[in-house]
């Protein structure tokens, strides 16, 4: 997966330009930074963003250069989805819910992928690959460059720790929707990617996302008995639009969805 991703970013600019777009709603696009339409300070990142489910719907539009791209990346996407759904089952159980609770609550989940490419940066102290953010979706499965560190997570709200790559391991991030569904029991982690002067870096993030019409609210089994719902109900469509209308490093987007009683 990493190798074919890197081959893609090594293509000549004229070839890559055909896929360039800064329109967040586009389902297949090559872009840069995070949201160049909104932000005033750009980040040191290029990324290829693909919608991946249902595969048959999107595959025809995926890059056909490098030649092996579609085959390798589609197999990767299928496997990652299987893993993600298994994890959601385990997370449901860990909350004392039915194993299929979260999967049902999220509806037929979309799956998006960001193939991130962070070039060597001559002045890494002046920028980020990705600034501090939480992922807006439900669950993120991140494959890191095995040889170059860069991911950091915020611990106890006040210091950053490096999550260095481990051979053959994924990093799993819980996103905003699992924080909401679990009524805050699971936290959507603040994380960022730093860049360095010596080496380029890659990461591949696979995002499982609720279907747009899914109504997200704290699981009924987790509220009551003195535990008020921390978040109000909303559709994922509403959440996702709000997320992309903002800058990445503002306050937690979920803060805007707190229930009225608790504000
Ligand atoms: O490059 C990384 O390690 C982090 C990527 C990430 O957080 C994202 O794509 O949302
Ligand atoms: Fe992220």
UniProtKB/TrEMBL annotation:
Transmembrane segments: none
Gene3D superfamilies: B-lactam Antibiotic, Isopenicillin N Synthase, Chain
Residues annotated as domain Fe2OG dioxygenase: 109-210
GO biological process, one term: defense response to oomycetes
A GO molecular function held by the record: metal ion binding
Co-factor(s): L-ascorbate
Sorted UniProt keywords: Dioxygenase, Iron, Metal-binding, Oxidoreductase
Similarity-based family: Belongs to the iron/ascorbate-dependent oxidoreductase family.
PANTHER family: OXOGLUTARATE/IRON-DEPENDENT DIOXYGENASE
Protein name, entry field: Fe2OG dioxygenase domain-containing protein
Organism: Urochloa decumbens
Lineage of the species this protein comes from: Eukaryota, Viridiplantae, Streptophyta, Embryophyta, Tracheophyta
